[in-house]
Amino acid sequence: MKGSGIHVVIVAGGSGRRMKSEIPKQFLMLGDAPLIIRSIRVFLEAFPASPVIVAIHPGWKKEMESLRQKYLPGQDITLVEGGSTRFESVRNALAALPEAVRPVLIHDAVRPLLSPSLVKKVAAAVEANLGVIPAIAVKDSLRRVEGGKSYPLDRKSIVRVQTPQGFPLAALKAAYKQAWSEAFTDDASVFEQAGGKIKIIEGEEKNIKITTPADLEGARLSIQNSGQ
Fold it and tell me: CA 134, CA 58: separation in Å to the nearest integer?
C-alpha cells in the first residue's frame, strides 16, 4: 500500500489514575506541548496530508478542541466520542472514516516518542488481509506465577508489542463488527479473530507508553537529551 496515504486513529480515552493526575495523562505537558499533540505531530510529519481521528472521552472533548486549535490549526483532525473500553473507542473512530483503499494506523495517545520513520515503516508493510505491529525484544528474564509457584519462560519467544498498529482499513472495519471479547487486548487481536494475519516488524525502544510519573520523567529527560 505504498504511496496511498494513510488514515490515523489516536486513542485518547485514558484517565490519570496511575499517573495520579487530576487530568487525563494524554493532556499532560511534555516539552512544548501535551502528550497527545506530540503524538499527532509525528504522524503529520510522516504523512502531512493524513486525516486524523481522535477518540476522546466526551467530558474532555472541549479541551481537545481547544488544543487542536492552539497547536494544530488548519489540520484535518476529527474528534469522536470514545467508549467505555478501548474496543468501543476504536470502533467509533473507524465508523467516522470513509471507505478508502489505504492503511489505517491505530496509535495510543500516550506514546509520543515514536519516530516518523516507524510510522512510515508500519504503513508501508500493510497489505490486503495483513496487519502490521511493531514490537521489541524482551531483555529481562521472565517467569510465570501460578498457584503459588513460578516457572521460567523463554524470553526469545516473547516480544513487547507497541503501537502504531497498521491494517487495511476495510478489513479492520469488518473485524470491529464482532462483539467485544476479553481476548481483545489490542487491535491486532481483534483483526486476527476475524481471520486476518499479523506481521511483526521491529519497534523502537524509545516508543514507550507513558502511564506513570516515572515514565513521564523519563520521557522529559529523553527529549531534553535529544534536543526535541
Answer: 30
Q: Are 126 and 207 in contact (CB under 8 A)?
A: no
Does the predicted TM-score (pTM) go above 0.90? Answer: yes
pLDDT digits 0-9 by tens, 125-150: 999 999 999 999 999 999 999 988 99
User: How far apart are the C-alpha atoms of 136 and 109, rounded to whole Å?
Assistant: 19
* 3-state per-residue secondary structure call for the chain: CCCCCCEEEEEECCCCCCCCCCCCHHHCEECCEEHHHHHHHHHHHHCCCCCEEEEECHHHHHHHHHHHHHHCCCCCEEEEECCCCHHHHHHHHHHCCCCCCCEEEEEECCCCCCCHHHHHHHHHHCECCEEEEEEEECCCCEEEEECCEEEEECHHHCEEECCCEEEEHHHHHHHCCCCCCCCCCCHHHHHHHCCCEEEEEECCCCCCCCCCHHHHHHHHHHHHHHCC
pLDDT at 65: 96
Please give the average per-residue pLDDT across 188-198, as a whole number: 97
- Decide if 40 contacts 77 (C-beta within 8 A): yes
Task: Please provide the average confidence, as pLDDT, over all residues in the chain.
Answer: 92
Encoded amino acid at 87, one letter: F
**Superfamily of chain region 7-226:** Spore Coat Polysaccharide Biosynthesis Protein SpsA; Chain A (3.90.550.10)
